Amino acid sequence: MVKKATYAPQKIGLTLSGGGARGAYQAGVLRAIYQITNLKQCPFQVICGVSAGALNAMAIASRTEDFKEATQRINDTWLNLTMDKIFKTDSLTALSTALMWITDLTLGEYLPTKKVNHLLDTSPLRELLKENLNTVNIQKNIKNGHLHGVALSATDYRSGKCVTFFDGSKAIKEWDRYSGIGRRAQLSIDHMMASSAIPIFFPPVQIDQSDYGDGGIGQSSALSPVLRLGADKILAIGLEHPPGNEETESIKSLAPLTLSDITSTLFSNLFLKSMRGDVMRLKQTNRLMSFLTPEEIRSDGLAMRKVPALFITPSVDLGKIEVNQFSKFPFALRRVLKGLGFTDRRAWDLLSYLAFDSCYAKALLNLGYKDGMAREAEILEFLELV
């Protein structure tokens, strides 16, 4: 009697990049994926994210048994978002923070300790996450087999390394490489706050005697976590508009460079570039693998495997979707930002990371849904539903 071969089902990975308020775009794409597939259960067994992408990822991971509800709740959360649900917007808090900055900058050498390392108080975001995310459900979904692995990444300000906190199958091992560290943990609101702590603007979060900030700072390989957690194929949703799709704008003014201009460039590289480069390298590796036989790979000891990937990015530059948001920023914060060179016309690309408002979110949700629906055939093929 010949024993019939058995094959483990492929583990489909979902990975979501960071980008502050731009994360609403990912929610729109996920809604389109549900609309296209009409699947009851979430099709992703490995879910990873960083920064705002980590919050979206955890929301999906907490409701894998009902993909429709998961995607709808994420969309509703973004649609009902206001800035005061993310950070304190009252003048007293802004004034207190400003005074601490002034004190540290002017009298710092006489003070035993510095009091400030951020501009905004994000305690409202912590409450929002507590109300909308049940981390216990993530544990249940791992135990019942709906999830093989889930992870989010944060940057350890003490060591400068990117730490990926993960939970999942016992088969997933911790790692410590030059590019980053993988540490098993029971994921909590603290981990989410740390991963989404935009540098300078949001405060660091203490976890296990160290201080953490946005995962995009130290992450050199955006696809590494989802691969290390065992994904056999990857659907990645980025937030960077592919270059070369529009004409270069002419420089009309050589106005003096401001801090806002510098920070805008910094954030663009911090949040948006890593995933695109990783996807390009993965495609090159897949192409190389197609020229090698399994025997050649084994004989050479190559630690590589072919990993199909589908990459979805905005068809429009999210930093150029202007919906007159600057006027909606809290008065005290607006005064500080104006002093740094921020205006509606200048550095909106940077301000868009902080535009946690339903008007901007709605524009991004609609764009994400539209872009997702435009990739219907690719999504169905990728998920092997055709």
What does this structure look like?
The protein is of the alpha/beta class. Helix content is 41%, strand content 13%. It is built from 15 helices and 10 strands. It has helices at 24-37, 52-61, 67-79, 91-107, 123-132, 135-143, 189-195, 224-228, 259-271, 273-290, 294-300, 331-339, 348-351, 358-374, 376-382; strands spanning 12-16, 46-50, 149-156, 162-168, 175-177, 180-184, 205-207, 210-214, 233-237, 309-312. Strands 1, 2, 3, 4, 5, 6, 7, 8, 9 and 10 form a 10-stranded mixed beta sheet that branches. Strand 3 (149-156) and strand 4 (162-168) form a beta hairpin. Helix 1 packs parallel to helix 14 (358-374) and helix 4 (91-107) packs parallel to helix 12 (331-339). The protein is globular and about 65 Å long. The model is unreliable at 1-7 and 245-252 (pLDDT under 50).
List keywords for this structure.
15 helices; alpha/beta; disordered N terminus; 386 residues; 10-stranded mixed beta sheet; single chain; globular; 13% strand
* Most strands sheet: 10 strands, mixed
- Average of the residue pLDDT scores: 82
Helix/strand order:
EHEHHHHHEEEEHEEHEHHHEHHHH
Helix content: 40-55%
Number of helices: 15
Distance between the termini: 34 Å
Low-confidence stretches: 1-7, 245-252
- Number of extended strands: 10
Radius of gyration: 22 Å
Question: What global shape is seen?
Answer: globular
Tell me the structural class.
alpha/beta
| Percentage beta strand | 5-15%
